[in-house]
Amino acid sequence: MTVKEKFDSMDYGPAPESAGEALEWIAARDSAFGLYINGEMTKPGALFDSRNPATGEVLAQVTQASADDVDVAVIAARKAQKSWGALPGHARAKYLYALARLVQKHSRLFAVLESMDNGKPIRESRDIDIPLVTRHFYYHAGMAQLQDAELPNREALGVCGQIIPWNFPLLMLAWKIAPAIAMGNTVVLKPAEYTSLTALLFAQICDEAGLPKGVVNIVTGDGRVGEAIGTHEGIDKIAFTGSTNVGRHIRRATAGSGKSLTLELGGKSPYIVFDDADLDSAVEGLVDAIWFNQGQVCCAGSRLIVQEGIADRFYAKLKARMGKLRIGDPLDKSIDVGAVVDPIQHQRITDMVNAGAGEGELYQAPCPLPDQGCFYPPTLITGLSSASTLMQEEIFGPVLAATTFRTPGEAVEIANNTRYGLAASVWSENVNLTLDIAPKLAAGVVWVNGTNMFDAAAGFGGVRESGFGREGGWEGLQAYTKPRGKAVALKPVAPVAAPKDAKVDALDRTAKFYVGGKQARPDGGYSQAIWAKSGTLLGHVGIANRKDIRNAVEAATAAKGWAKTTGHARAQILYYIGENLSARAGEFAARIDAMTGGKSGKKEVEAAISRLFTYAAWADKFDGAAKPVPMRGVALAMNEPVGVIGGFCPDEAPLLGLVSLMAPAIAMGNRVVLAASQPYPLAATDFYQVLDTSDVPSGVVNIIIGDHVTLAAPLAGHLGVDAIWSHSGADISATVELESAGNLKRSWVNNAKARDWMGAAGEGREFLSHATEVKTVWVPYGE
Amino acid sequence: MKSEPQTTSDEGLKASSDQLPQLALPRNPGMDLDMNWVRAVQANTSAIERRCATLSGRRSVKKDYQAAWLLKAITMIDLTTLSGDDTEGRVRRLCAKAAQPVRPEIMAALGMEPVTTGAVCVYHDMIETAVSSLKSLGVTMPVAAVSTGFPAGLSPYHLRVEEIRESVRAGAEEIDIVISRRHVLTGNWQALYDEMRDFREACGDAHVKAILATGELGSLRNVARASLVCMMAGADFIKTSTGKESVNATLPVSLVMIRAIRDYFDATGYKVGYKPAGGISKAKDALVYLSLIKEELGDDWLDPHLFRFGASSLLGDIERQLEHHVTGHYSATYRHPMG
Q: Catalytic residue at A40?
């Protein structure tokens, strides 16, 4: 074609990024890679092919790690952790800084390798992925520097097993490794089998940075390697990013193992467009929401929810924009949509669209596709409803499902009508509307008039079946640290057995449950006697079954207005509870002493009153943050209530234990269903009378009595419960974690370790962070 | 380029005075002021800026394509001199450059026939000089004149209207008017509409470019609304700046204006042209602008009849890039004839 013809056609023409350096890098390693363990590359073992999805060509061969390899890596990491964790923060900061610099220095090699391995457009790997990687290491170099001063009471978890997905291979590596090693952990990381190459290049970077041997270990391979990591006894923490199904499997596999766990899973994120939005900008936002990385983004705005009056116009604009998308060679600089990662994914997307598109109207952009390779056209399906499969199921491809709404309330309802809760976008020029909607959305991240904004300073993570834990920011460090100190084993407390010579008061006293602000009889109609050490019958309590749990959760769910009350109002109620408890302090102390046969009742009641005051104080002081993200705008980290929290109260401190769980939870706006101390339940049943007189709205606090072992599965497994805490004396940690997998609720269990409820460990920020979800609300601004 | 009218209008072809020169495109007749539409316009600044910031990373034009695009850019330049010290000699030199913007051997090496810039743009007093020198150079190229009390637009209203008529009589085929910014800043859209209507009428067959002076309008939403009102009042082109404001053409302003053009076309079927002016001095910037137009408006607008650069120093940078393309060596300014 002559210049004249090009002058007439004004086509873009090819603009290829060179693959030469990346291919040379691979060739220089004989196109076969071993594992990176203890600072060295092992000899290649059982190899599998790593292909370029845009061409189908084999790029390199990568080792399938064995269980033994994982063992060796974990041992190396364990050995390294001692000295790595003992380094001053500044020393670790220097290493992280070096890693950041080195990634930056090799940025184009990383970008090209990433695009070849994964299929994403070079623009994205070059302008988004790699810059975010360096940003993450710089940011966490700073966290290592500040650790000693700012987190003196927390320490590293130990060895972290990290399993990452193929959609952002190096970025997810950075999100996992940077905070982990900054805080003094060492890691065994498994990249996804489709995309191992940039992780192997990163191994080289670790060497260049002089990182001590064993701090970072990289083992490649498929799900079997992940399984070996997930179930390895030498690992203290698992961090996983990937599909909800695998996340659920990991939750079950690690249940009861004592491992910490964070999961960043799937999503079906809503993208809400109000009629007063800048429609052209909202259309452009969708390009970044659903056609970014071929839609293979966990937080992709994949559910378009548009106001009915503008829907047709918006769809027309969107279709016109889709026609301008360029699909093809990921290494071409003018490509918007690259290749889907693997033929298996391509088939999955195709199958889902073929099966579900009939429920609406299918539109595929008339963009020419390359003849070969895993390319899927940008796709829009309008006219769907919430009941449509494509509105509910994650497609993980460049497919946008659309529906309409009438009112802001309905928009929220549709947006939240999902099992997921990762991210959401809201488009409107009305600040009142957007800032009203953002807190109402069930999501860990909300973007106002934007989408897919990320930064190391801003927390990222989900609620519901999108997982738990945050990555980025101060909140992200929770996932890689624990409170200092060595935990001791919890001594179980047995109930007082029925005496041979029972002393029974003539007046029968039957304590009930407290459900929805009312005293409730046990559904099953069974009761048990509670005896004093002295042999006196203190009373009977009902024995709860799963239906009592159902009723209690229903009551808690209905009390959702509590989340909207002000911190000041919640504080007033907590103070009032303290006041009323104080008025009956003597009676409570005597009851505790009678049940336990001890003399600490008075002290426990005083501690409980103090604790109520502590959380009354916190109710309006657990501040969020405005994150200094590199943007004109604010990223607000808002501490939101988790929702309905189920809790098993400590056995040994019947009143204080209950208050220690209840008070932080309700102070933060949660509703609770608490199973009281099993051996000493009467402090709880007395306590509901205090609640009754303290203006606690019905359903905010629900108390049931029963066998914790029996109740563990139904409460932890209840799909309407958002978090489950177990501080029970019964050995139920494994059951609770296992059953929590159903809706992937957050769990917090004691793993049969004791806690000093009277002391500082019994209250404070640790409890508050379990009682809240950090929601990051991005509000770019500018006129 | 397309010779068919790309319009949904069923009015068909009108008299030649209603059409853009050389193209059988119907001229935008304007419409009644639609305040519902104007008020509904939104422009989200940060989202617009993000789109612009990523555009240069999304589109890249290389090698022969780049040379072709740069040549296209030359044909879209309104080669401009708007200085108090302009003289007839200066204007004749400018016209000579406009008539032959690139050294012939470079054009030959590219296998291209000669091209000219889109127009020359001068003050009223230089119109006759420009017209006669272009005629003597044997090129057919419109002369554009800035008018209506350019750049501030604050001279007596009847004189502003009369200035247009004088310029048309002097031989200007394109009139670049300046709007009264105060009408925008005070939300007096009716006044802006009426003013634009009068200016359009005074232009007669000459084509009218409405300079919004976007750097003085305060917000992108105002830019969008002013764009729309001027199109409703019959502007043939909307143009960013006089070149005299402290902030002239920017990508965000351009995006807002061309989206307004797109909406106007969708609603009426009439294609209005776009002219960013001031501050575009690098070949690379010109490529980004062209890709912005191609992405947001489409190929039809990649044509001098619907797109112009108001620029004086851009041409020099393009010439150097073209020589580099032809020779493989970076060029120097003095190797190219001055305008």
A: no
Tell me the pLDDT band of A534, cut-offs 50, 70 and 90.
Answer: confident
Q: State the CB neighbour count (10 A cutoff) for residue A488.
A: 10
Position B10 pLDDT exceeds 80? no
| ipTM given for this complex | 0.95
A:B CB pairs within 8 Å: 102
pLDDT band for A505, please (50, 70, 90 cuts): confident
What is the DSSP-derived secondary structure letter of residue A396? -
Are B74 and B46 contacting, i.e. CB atoms less than 8 angstroms apart? Answer: no
Q: How much is the average pLDDT of A384-397?
A: 96
- Cross-chain Cβ contact B295/A279 below 8 Å: no
- Tokens for A521? 């009889």
Shortest CB distance from B47 goes to which of A11, A126, A285? A285
Tokens standing for B53? 């910031």
Q: Which residues of B touch A126 (CB under 8 A)?
A: 57
In the residue annotation, A298 being an active-site residue is answered as yes
Among B42, B60, B113, the residue with its CB nearest the CB of A333 is: B60
Active-site residue identified among A17, A114, A193, A264: A264
Would you name the residues of B annotated as active-site residues?
A: 176, 239, 275
Give the three-class secondary structure for A175.
Answer: helix
Q: Are A15 and B50 a contacting pair at CB < 8 A?
A: no
Residue of A nearest to B66 (CA): A12
Shortest CB distance from A12 goes to which of B47, B65, B67? B65
Please give the angle made by the CA atoms of A472, A473 and A474, to the nearest 5 degrees: 130
% of residues, chain A, pLDDT over 70: 100
SS3 A299: coil
Closest CA–CA distance from residue A291 to any residue of chain B (Å): 13
CA distance B67 to chain A (A): 7
* Dihedral of alpha carbons B177, B178, B182, B185, sign: positive
Strands (E), A605-749: 625-627, 633-641, 644-648, 671-675, 701-704, 723-726, 746-749
Query: Pick from B301, B252, B303: which is nearest to B279 by CA?
Result: B252
Q: How confident is the model at residue B263 (pLDDT cuts 50, 70, 90)?
A: very high
Q: Do A3 and B302 touch (CB under 8 A)?
A: no
- Do the chains contact at B59 and A12, CB–CB below 8 Å? yes
Cα–Cα distance for residue pair A464/A147, rounded to 1 Å: 30
Is B112 in Cβ contact with A10 (below 8 Å)?
Answer: no
